[in-house]
Design a protein that fits this description.
CATH topology of the largest domain: Citrate Synthase, domain 1
Shape: globular
Radius of gyration: 23 Å
CATH class of the largest domain: Mainly Alpha
Keywords: Acyltransferase, Transferase, Tricarboxylic acid cycle
Number of domains: 3
Bound molecules: s-citryldethia Coenzyme A
CATH architecture of the largest domain: Orthogonal Bundle
Pfam family, one: Citrate_synt
Helix content: 40-55%
Number of strands: 6
CATH superfamily of the largest domain: Citrate Synthase, domain 1
Structural class: mainly alpha
Strand order of the largest sheet: 1-2-3
Mean pLDDT: 95
Distance between the termini: 59 Å
Protein name: Citrate synthase
Order of helices and strands: EEEEEEHHHHHHHHHHHHHHHHH
Low-confidence stretches: none
Strand content: 5-15%
Catalytic activity: oxaloacetate + acetyl-CoA + H2O = citrate + CoA + H(+)
Number of helices: 17
Largest sheet: 3 strands, antiparallel
Family: Belongs to the citrate synthase family.
Length: 426
């Protein structure tokens, strides 16, 4: 709380409404508008363009400066110096782990990485050509059937085990979804492999064969997971918070987040970027693509560009672009045509008045797909990888909410429908 107040004067009301202002550590302070309902008004903010839905200590974004901090640490530093499980621990607990804490956390995640046979069988019931996000969403919701009776969301220990199960099983489920689409046998988690290498082995390994995972690709995968780990109150995280605010099973709340992430305006954009780059096909076609993106009547947007919060470079896109160069060079793919198209498209867009005036920059999804394609991930699996990395962020926000006092989320509306009228008498 600060001593500062906002003063709202409303035509027809002679009294000025005083609204308390709460201070933030960094970034905008917030105006508490809860009392205006007493004066017969709701705030109106479709799309929550200027609404703080909650107080949080997990992630901070400065969209104008292109800053992203996880528990105060810049994403650029975590992406280069940390690893995904250390970042998971940081997001969940607020501090970097000691070596002993990291060792215990890693062991617990590994201990809880096996998926119940009933859920593995559920994955197998889907048509092979089903979209992987539809299967993943269903499979995570099915975990709510496995882990319902024993979960006590008011108990910190119970919530900790749920974190291990989600972080441990989301790569196993993601790999199963891929294996099912290929008609291949599932591969069990291998405790001798680190998190990203284990995921890659479960995805691309062959049953009965020793793991053979490239360290270059495993490191790139781990960095992709870090870059997707959390992003404040984005649509899918807000979904998880709103769903969780009813006290529902946390696995069911995470499944709701997966369904929200799937959309092309959100996490589904990485798949749409690759499809767009492949549709462009050559550098010569970029100009016409950019022209379409600027033409409101086309209904086409430059996928991987623009962001609700970033009006500057998405810091994750910068790290992703650098990683893209490193991985393609290491794999001898630096002449990958899609990379050339992406780089030229970025250059043209960033010099174009339309994109400059609307502050549209590449976001996290613009380069991620090129790396994932280079390491062999099929396009339709890109958003599954995003969901895999983001699971810890969703859970960290759910855990932050249920660890303290919270109310069920219940927005109001501006009603513009019919006034009260009587049912016609026969
Ligand atoms: C993610 O919230 C998060 O943090 C999300 C995320 C996370 O980590 O969780 O960062 C991950 O979802 C990244 C965004 C991925 N989506 C895309 O790349 C899809 C393409 N981008 C957009 O559709 C759009 O930019 C959004 C959805 C990302 C943001 O949309 P907003 O904030 O609602 O802005 P808007 O649609 O009102 O656009 C503002 C203007 C409009 O023009 P005007 O009506 O003002 O004339 O910019 C234009 C838009 O037409 N515009 C674009 C554009 N994005 C916005 N024009 C062409 N191409 C684009 N990509």
């Amino acid at each position: 709380m600060t001593d500062k107040k906002a003063h709202l004067s409303i035509d027809g009301i002679d009294k000025t409404i005083e609204l308390p202002i709460y201070a933030s550590t960094i970034g905008p302070d917030v105006i508490d508008v809860t009392s205006i309902t007493k004066h017969g008004f709701f705030t109106f903010d479709p799309g929550f363009m200027s609404t703080a839905s909650c107080e949080s200590k997990i992630t901070f974004i400065d969209g104008d400066e292109g800053v992203l901090l996880h528990r105060g640490y810049p994403i650029e530093q975590l992406a280069v110096s940390s690893d995904y499980l250390e970042t998971c621990y940081l997001l969940l607990n607020g501090e970097l782990p000691t070596p002993a804490q990291k060792e215990e956390f890693t062991a617990e995640v590994k201990k809880h990485s096996t998926v119940d046979a009933s859920v593995a069988n559920l994955v197998k019931t889907f048509k092979r050509e089903s979209h992987p996000m539809a299967i993943l969403c269903s499979a995570v919701a099915a975990l709510a059937a496995i882990y319902n009776d024993e979960i006590d969301i008011t108990n910190a220990e119970s919530r900790k085990i749920t974190a291990y199960r989600l972080i441990g099983q989301i790569p196993t489920l993601s790999a199963m979804v891929y294996k099912h689409s290929k008609g291949e046998e599932f591969i069990a988690p291998d405790d001798n492999l680190d998190y990203a290498a284990n995921f890659l082995n479960m995805t691309f390994g062959k049953a009965g064969q020793a793991p053979n995972v490239s360290q270059t690709i495993a490191k790139a995968m781990d960095r992709i997971f870090i870059l997707h780990a959390d992003h404040e109150q984005n649509a899918s995280t807000s979904t998880v918070r709103l769903s969780g605010s009813s006290g529902t099973n946390p696995f069911a709340a995470i499944a709701a987040g997966i369904s929200t992430l799937w959309g092309p305006a959100h996490g589904g954009a990485n798949e749409a970027v690759l499809n767009m780059l492949e549709e462009i096909g050559s550098v010569e076609n970029i100009e016409s693509c950019v022209a379409r993106a600027k033409d409101k009547t086309s209904g086409f947007r430059l996928m991987g560009f623009g962001h609700r919060v970033y009006k500057n470079f998405d810091p994750r896109a910068k790290v992703m672009k650098q990683t893209c160069d490193e991985v393609l060079a290491e794999l001898g793919l630096e002449n990958e045509p899609l990379l050339a198209i992406a780089k030229r498209l970025e250059q043209i867009a960033l010099e174009d008045e339309y994109f400059i005036s609307k502050k549209l920059y590449p976001n996290v999804d613009f380069y991620s797909g090129i790396i994932m394609k280079a390491v062999g991930i099929p396009t339709e699996m890109f958003t599954v990888i995003f969901a895999l990395g983001r699971t810890v962020g969703w859970y960290s926000h759910w855990n932050e909410m249920v660890s303290g006092p919270y109310k069920i989320g219940r927005p109001r509306q501006q009603y513009t429908g019919s006034p009260k009228r009587d049912y016609p008498t026969k």
